[in-house]
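SUBJECT: A protein chain and its fold
Encoding: whole-number codes for local backbone shapes
Chain under study, with its fold:
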Amino acid sequence: MAKTIQAIRGMNDCSPTETPLWQWVEEQIKDTLASYGYSEMRSPIIESTALFERGVGEATDIVEKEMFTFVRDEESLTLRPEGTAGCVRAAIEHGWIYNQEQRLWYIGPMFRYERPQKGRYRQFHQAGVEIFGIPNAEADAELILLTARLWKKLGIDQHVSLQLNSIGGLEVRTKYREALVAFLQNHLDILDEDCKRRLHTNPMRILDTKNQAIQEVLNNAPKLHDFLDEESKNHFETLCSILDAMGIRYEVNQKLVRGLDYYNKTVFEWVTTALGAQGTVCGGGRYDGLVAQLGGHSTEGVGFAMGLERLVLLVQEVNPNVQLARPVDVYVVYQGTGTTAAAFNLAETLRSALPQLRIMQHASGGNFKKQFKRADKSGAKIALVLGESEVENNSVVVKDLFGETEQITISQTDVIAELTKRFA
């Protein structure tokens, strides 16, 4: 026998029993975004490596350690590790944001080479949202309100909490980095190797280290909010006042900086402890300089991304009341001379008349007993049965596979009305 080939480590299959929940979660996301007037965009999975080096930042963990990069015909290409840079690139290239506001969303696979763990894989899936051309804090607030509404629809709102911060503009962060580095230079003996590396590349990332000993030292570090300019303070105060007025609870976390270089002013994360250690369900913030940094006209931006693997796990963990659609509603069984064509005709007629129903037709032969076993296994509620006598009389047997109603025989002309009543 030939040796079997398995999936690459950290790149998972999604089985037919798992996809209904994924589809339901994605449907709630898409419906929520549509209700706010956002439009879908789609971008390539492969982009120029330079896009992420310039957009995400060369000193970030993503660019330094996690990208899937290869060279083809002397061109360096990368599987997208996140969605914002590609969305900005497309918006610039096609003129979607020139002198206009734009609210966009996307969904799809991303790729990062990191240690696989529960809910975190090397190929993972994100839904992301970007707003362009609106500098006001109202845009930031809308994104947070949108996500809060989504959590209620998913049934996870009691298991997530919002953390919020303002990191100011480039000048603010430059001054703060100098003060933070000066402080940490006095505590080099406490820093682990990762933090020592970041001290010279991206020192603000040390603020969200998972090392508790370093976190205790950071409690005495300079506070970022002490360095904020008036514009950043006013922006943050406006955002907080809107959230207060709308009853959105949040915690101001001055150590929250997010992991990408393009952020400024508002950053936020929705976090949960329902999956074990605290994990981020959704994160984002403002990136007013990114469009110009990637070659476009100066355009404000704010957005977020949520990891679908972790979101699906959270729904599984805390919402047992999810009502998923059946994979099959109606199963058509048939046996005898002349029944094959009649079964095909019945199934196609019903699909045209009742497109909302999932109708499966038996196709692997066998007697009625075998076919009913397949019908039960499919999860269908109703079986439609055609034998030679039913074909001759232009009738059909309607059998409730859940045993809730009696089996009946009706004219084929009445099947549409009968199924409409039963699946109302």
About this structure: Residues 137-154 form the longest helix (18 residues). The radius of gyration is 28 Å. The chain has a mean pLDDT of 94.
